[in-house]
Amino acid sequence: MSQAQNDPPASPHDTAQFRIRRAFLLPLGLLLALSVALLIVTLLQGQSTGKIIVLSALIIPVAGIFLESATRSAEIGPEAITIHKFLRNRSLRYDEVTEVEAVVVKKRAFLSISSEAHFLIISNAYADFPTLVRSLLSHVPDEVVTEQARKMAADPPVKSSDIVSCWIATTLMALILAVQLYGRF
């Protein structure tokens, strides 16, 4: 049985799916759309090749980050955790986990899940990160969870600076597009 997005599993046999926060994806998607619109306007207006190259160089990483973020999800299943990324998946069975560690830098949190052969890293960019952490820790053996991971699970940091930065970039891109279209601010 599959749970709705970002719902904790009702029982150990259910699966919970967690996605990157929509509050981040929305401004990032708008930034990408505005950047593409500006590139189209620049091409139609016959602007300089340098401007077109700079815009194209800007669009490539924004599109990559958007595609990667929009397709990324973490699935807490009854037997394993699976991270779904664009064109690839990686799973770790709970019985193979040798350590769960946490690193917190300012408001950015990372959870590292290791086995003998592989590791996964989960950040607090996921929606409902506290539930994701608690659900994961309920599945792995207690002895593999470090004290830092337990502390972070008790009070996971909430990060919003990436969302604010993305909205600022989106606003600036909208202003640049308006200036390009109307010739004045």
Q: Would you write up a description of this structure?
A:
This protein has 185 residues and is α+β, with helices and mostly antiparallel strands. The chain contains five helices and eight strands. It has a five-stranded mixed sheet with strand order 1-2-3-4-5. It has a three-stranded antiparallel sheet with strand order 6-7-8. Strand 3 and strand 4 form a beta hairpin. It starts with a strand and ends with a helix. The model is unreliable at 1-10 (pLDDT under 50).
Layout: helices, strands, pairs:
Layout: E1 2-5, E2 15-19, H1 22-44, H2 49-71, E3 73-76, E4 80-85, E5 88-93, E6 97-105, E7 108-115, E8 119-123, H3 129-139, H4 147-154, H5 161-182
Parallel strand pairs: 1-2
Antiparallel strand pairs: 2-3, 3-4, 4-5, 6-7, 7-8
Structural class: alpha+beta
Output the radius of gyration: 20 Å
Number of β-strand runs: 8
Note the overall shape: elongated
Contiguous runs where pLDDT drops below 50 for at least 5 residues: 1-10
Number of helices: 5
Largest beta sheet: strand ordering: 1-2-3-4-5
The main β sheet shows up as:
5 strands, mixed
What keywords describe this structure?
3-stranded antiparallel beta sheet, 5-stranded mixed beta sheet, alpha+beta, 185 residues, 25% strand, 47% helix
Give a short synopsis of this structure.
This protein is α+β, with helices and mostly antiparallel strands.
